[in-house]
Write a structure and sequence with these properties.
Helix content is 11%, strand content 40%. By secondary structure, it is mainly beta. The protein has a five-stranded antiparallel sheet with strand order 5-4-3-8-9, with no helix packed on it. A five-stranded mixed sheet has the order 21-27-26-23-24, with no helix packed on it. α2 (323-344) packs antiparallel against α3. The longest helix is centred in the middle third of the chain and has 22 residues, at 323-344.
């Protein structure tokens, strides 16, 4: 294009104007403005108002509350030359100004919402800008659990976070958790299920992200009460008892105390020779022992939540003496000399008969005084609680001598110090933990080893060493811990109409001895409830609002039931063409169901 022509002169002027704009001539019309920081506007957090396009030669920044920059509205000012700040009439003690002119408000409050005016005084110019700050109150999530009292290592806990946020974080014992073998988080992240709750799974807490996902606001803490035990029972006495035998003289002072563990604190009762003692203290004090007070004392400990019962007993008796044996030996020696004299005179036959009788009597006397204990061998006999995961296991010592000084239990087939689990001194009533001690073992005064909350890896050989004054005996036994079966339950429907529908529940287990529970109460077959011959199916006809929840259980140990999860059935009542769920459940409408009368009429057509 030829720019020397008249038409091209206009193009030359336009190109010149464009060049001026590109060179920054527009800066003269630039205006200072205020922009809030992305993190600004939440109660309790800091808010930051930034000045943009301020002159480069600013001498002072001043911030004012409101839409003007009067001295009465001054919050604070900052001198860029002296680096000093001057506080104004509306200064609250939470404001500061940076060297770039930004206003920082610490601990923002709801009444900080409003207009803010910044004035930038330079050598050549003074500019002003007004901006709006809005402080909002952020959401604090709520939390609830289905139960706060749980059976440790058996029960499950369901926690719900009440929030409108869809990105919920869960904290167990103050630690952030995700889905795992024992922990399940729902797809909307608002529900967490913890299976087989342990004592370190408390407290529970949920949190939601605020402030662009960098700050987490947490709910209150929910603490769980763990129920466990009892895992051991001991009777400590003065004078001390040995292998369950407490020797005491008549008129002497005897004191016994029942020691056990468990939470909540277990109930206990004491029985003397089959009769329940009237007092409820753990201590049994006999100031002056009588013949009537001798006998067997048993301490029984029960935990209603864990359904565990343990007991320990001691026998109070007069010290045993072998005077009868000594007298028998003396009389037998005299009789032997007498018979030998007569045998010389020819009574050989009579001597033979008497000698045979003497030998029998002599042997009987020896056995009565416990001489045969030297040939008896100790052995380990697992009791009825052994072999079930999560419950206590016991290894009892049989045929132990009466003068035992110490019981020591070892893991494996030998009794080396490296394999020591725990030992118990019967004289000082003290225990010593070894390298293999896991924190779950205890030894009773009779030498029984109890393992609390048995685990599958507890399976194996165990060796006990019994030290007496004159001898040391050893015995090895095998403990096998089987995995605990937890029955599962399902129903054909979880929503019924009150008094009209039927519900069929099935219990999934390999056990044939099944107990059914309706609304937490054990039930058997009746006119409304039918249980199948294999006990695995329960049918409830005319299901009512008092028939929920459902649960099944199996007997894993004598007097110990392992129950399934609870299954809740939503029960609705039908009236005026709508089916209304019981309060707190919701509302459902069934087409074609107008009333009980109309249903009867339809059935007759």
């Amino acid at each position: 294009m030829d720019l020397s022509r008249p038409r091209c002169r206009l193009w030359r002027k336009l190109v010149l104007v464009a060049s001026l704009l590109a060179c920054g001539i527009t800066q003269a019309s630039s205006q200072m403005y205020i922009s809030p920081d992305p993190f600004t506007g939440l109660k309790g957090f800091q808010s930051l108002l930034t000045v943009n396009n301020a002159p480069k030669d600013v001498q002072e920044y001043s911030w004012h509350r409101g839409a003007n920059d009067t001295e009465e509205n001054l919050i604070i000012s900052y001198n860029t030359t002296s680096h000093s700040q001057q506080k104004g009439p509306v200064y609250s003690g939470r404001e500061t100004v940076s060297h770039t002119g930004a206003l920082l408000i610490k601990g923002s409050q709801l009444n900080d919402t409003g207009n803010y005016t910044a004035r930038a005084a330079a050598f050549s110019d003074t500019q002003r800008a007004t901006g709006w700050l809005e402080v909002r109150e952020f959401e604090i999530p709520g939390i609830s659990v289905n139960t706060s009292i749980v059976l440790e290592d058996v029960d499950s806990v369901v926690a719900i976070c009440h929030t409108n946020n869809t990105d919920v974080q869960w904290y167990v014992a103050h630690t952030l958790v995700s889905s795992s073998e024992r922990t399940a988080i729902s797809p909307d992240t608002k529900t967490v299920i913890i299976k087989r709750v342990k004592n370190y799974d408390s407290p529970l807490q949920c949190g939601v992200k605020i402030v662009l996902g960098t700050v987490t606001q947490r709910s209150e803490l929910i603490y769980l009460t763990m129920a466990y035990g009892p895992s051991y029972v001991m009777i400590l006495s003065e004078p001390g008892n040995n292998n369950g035998i407490l020797p005491a003289e008549i008129s002497s002072h005897v004191e016994m105390v029942c020691v056990f563990n468990g939470a909540p604190e277990s109930k206990y009762r004491c029985i003397h020779s089959g009769s329940l003692l009237s007092f409820s203290e753990k201590n049994i004090t006999l100031p002056s022992l009588t013949w009537d007070q001798m006998g067997r004392y048993r301490c029984i400990v029960e935990n209603n939540l864990t359904q565990l019962t343990l007991h320990e007993e001691v026998q109070v008796q007069h010290p045993r003496e072998c005077r009868r044996f000594s007298q028998s030996i003396t009389m037998s020696a005299f009789l032997l000399d007498f018979l030998m004299a007569w045998s010389i005179l020819g009574y050989v036959l009579l001597f033979t008969l008497i000698l045979v009788g003497l030998i029998r009597c002599y042997s009987t006397s020896l056995l009565a005084c416990g001489i045969r204990q030297a040939s008896s061998q100790i052995y380990i006999a697992p009791d009825s609680l052994i072999g079930v995961e999560r419950y206590s296991s016991s290894l009892a010592v049989e045929n132990a001598p009466e003068d035992v000084q110490e019981y020591s239990w070892h893991r494996g087939a030998n009794d080396t110090e490296e394999n020591l689990i725990i030992s118990y001194n019967t004289t000082s009533h003290s225990r010593r933990d070894g390298p293999m001690y896991s924190g779950r073992e205890s030894v009773s005064i009779r030498g029984t080893l109890r393992i609390w909350r048995s685990q599958l890896n507890d399976t194996g050989n165990y060796t006990v060493r019994v030290d007496t004054i004159s001898d040391t005996q050893r015995a090895a036994g095998w403990l096998e811990v089987r995995e605990l079966e937890i029955p599962q339950i399902s129903v054909n429907t979880t929503s019924v109409v009150d008094g009209e529908d039927a519900v069929a529940a099935t219990c999934y287990t390999n056990d044939s001895h099944i107990q059914w529970y309706v609304n937490y109460v054990p039930v058997s077959g009746n006119y409304r409830m039918t249980i199948s011959p294999d006990n695995k199916t329960l049918v409830i006809r005319i299901f009512g609002r008092l028939d929920s929840p459902l649960q099944c259980g199996i007997e894993i140990l004598p007097e110990l039931i392992q129950k399934s999860d609870l299954v809740y059935v939503t029960v609705a009542c039908e009236c005026s063409g709508v089916v209304r769920v019981k309060p707190g459940v919701g509302l459902r409408v069934f087409p074609g169901r107008s009333s009980k009368t109309s249903r009867t009429g339809e059935s007759g057509m």
